[in-house]
């Protein structure tokens, strides 16, 4: 019996620091056997520590992931590219071949957390987006 090739997905957000890192973690945890997942940004902002923290709370370790640019990946390899913020959608490069392109925007936790009065309120924002991403996956 021949092995079915895993689909290759790329999730893109602005800085590849939070949302796309959470998506990558969730896909690995929930669909890792059937999907090869990557994340990247149109800029590099580094891995967001709060994203690492809230993902760890639900048993998903993203601490070894790192922020990368789209240009650092082989653009010809993806079956599907999904932008997950509006800025990435507006600035996403074209991908060659039969790559399918989708968009689903999630709110930006670091931006929303700026208005939080406490660290716990900030983490609650991250948790909400984390859970929305899990539901999407």
| CATH level 1 class label | Alpha Beta
What's the CATH H-level homologous superfamily?
Response regulator
* Distance between the ends: 29 Å
Helix content: 25-40%
Helix-strand blueprint:
Elements lengths: L6 E7 L5 H13 L3 E7 L7 H9 L22 E4 L2 H6 L8 E4 L5 H5 L5 H18 L1
List the keywords.
137 residues; alpha/beta; Rossmann fold; 4-stranded parallel beta sheet; 37% helix; 16% strand; globular
Description:
The chain is of the alpha/beta class and 137 residues long. It starts with 6 loop residues before the first strand and ends with a helix. A four-stranded parallel β-sheet has the order 2-1-3-4. The protein is built from five helices and four strands, in the order βαβαβαβαα. Helix 1 packs across helix 5 and helix 2 crosses helix 5. It has a single domain, classed as Response regulator (Rossmann fold, 3-Layer(aba) Sandwich), CATH 3.40.50.2300. Helix 3 links the parallel strand 3 and strand 4. The chain is 37% helix and 16% strand. The chain is globular, with a radius of gyration of 15 Å.
